[in-house]
Amino acid sequence: MDKVVDIIDSIAYEKDLSADDVKKVLSEAIVNTAKKTIGEEFGFSVDIDKKNKSLKIFQNILVVSNDSEKAKDTKNYITIDKAKDIDEDIEIGDEVAHELTFENLGRNAINLLYRELEYKIQGLIGQKLYDKYKAKVGKIVNGTVARIDSHENTYVEIDEVRAILSRKNRIKGESFKVGDVVKSILKNVKIDRDGMEIELSRTTPKLLEELLRLEVPEINEDNVRIEKSARIPGVRAKVGLSSDNPKIDAVGSTVGVKGIRINSVSRVLNGENIDCIEYSKTPEIFVLRALSPAIISSVKISGEKAIVSIPKDQKSKAIGKSGVNIRLASMLTGYQIELNELDEIATKEENKESKKSDLSDLISLFKED
Q1: Other C-beta atoms within 10 Å of 73: how many?
Q2: Which residue, among 141, 142, 144, 143, has the nearest Cα to 179 in the 3D structure?
């Protein structure tokens, strides 16, 4: 028994586990071993005293009447008369703790115990890994490509585990080879009968946001906030940015001098173009900015729809190549965008009305003074 107790600290140290956790699974393994060798219907308990390096196994012996059929099974039951010799207050139906040895458990008990313990230790290790990587969900992880299968799923080694970057979670057009270092978002972690599975993604907007956080100190220090983001992976992305500090240009800080910061992020995303947009809490203004580089005449919000009036010559810019610009603007703002094309005369009239309104506002200000 002393040898069994001595392995607690060594297992904990070797496997980088808590000694208390190892002690717990050791107790569970011993109880399971006792049940398998003596009987599932009986109760067992284990007392481990690490200070004195002692381990004791107890079987809960049921107290039965003197004339009970079970009284013949003296290993697992005790008569009331014999039980009274131990404790005068004991009654039929109570239990007496009887200490066992491994000899009581049978010749194969040791082998059975070690198999049971090994299984439980592997479970502890698996749970610890699960907790570790579960805490990293939504964060960037770096890994090395270990294998690419026939379905173009990429297997990436991250420290002590292997994760999967499936084809659907990979940016269209990019390819990897064994040995490449890959940045991804840890998308999901799950455990099933086959073990732990870690899923990576390079298509989620979260990857763009986390890359910007790494590249732009103002974002990392929360002086600039990423309010919204949207991506068509590998093609184009839009990011809505804001800052409460009037001295900080949210867009300028993120783009960097001569675009050095945003270009650095773009390279990681396989050349994805990234539009940085100043966020506004006013939906009409945010939709207008989201449709950049198109020049918009007006925006009207109606439920979940944004009705956008736009000059004829700006419509193609608002839609963008293959509809990318308007799709991203809709994804970013959360509105279904409807474009209403204005003819040249209507555009001029709208501009006149706008100027008249501005002039009226100016005159009214002077009147108030």
Answers
A1: 13
A2: 144
pTM for the predicted model, two decimal places? 0.75
Look at 369 and 341; give whichever has higher pLDDT.
341
Taking the C-alpha atoms of residue 304 and residue 296, their distance in angstroms, rounded to an integer, is 19
Tokens of 328: 């991203």
The answer, yes or no, to whether residue 17 has pLDDT greater than 80, is yes
Tell me the average pLDDT across 297-326. Answer: 95
**CA-closest candidate to residue 200, choices 163, 157, 150, 160:** 163
Q: 305: which strand partners?
A: 302, 336
Residue 26: both structure tokens together? 């050791």
- The answer to whether the beta carbons of residues 134 and 197 sit under 8 Å apart is no
Domains and their CATH numbers in the chain: 2-132 (3.30.1480.10), 137-201 (2.40.50.140), 205-361 (3.30.300.20)
164 close to 200: Cβ distance less than 8 angstroms: yes
- Residue 50 is inside which H or E element, if any? none
